[in-house]
Amino acid sequence: QKEVEQDPGPLSVPEGAIVSLNCTYSNSAFQYFMWYRQYSRKGPELLMYTYSSGNKEDGRFTAQVDKSSKYISLFIRDSQPSDSATYLCAFNAGGTSYGKLTFGQGTILTVHP
Amino acid sequence: DTGVSQNPRHKITKRGQNVTFRCDPISEHNRLYWYRQTLGQGPEFLTYFQNEAQLEKSRLLSDRFSAERPKGSFSTLEIQRTEQGDSAMYLCASSRITDTQYFGPGTRLTVL
Question: How far is A69 from chain B (nearest CA, A)?
Answer without folding.
Answer: 22
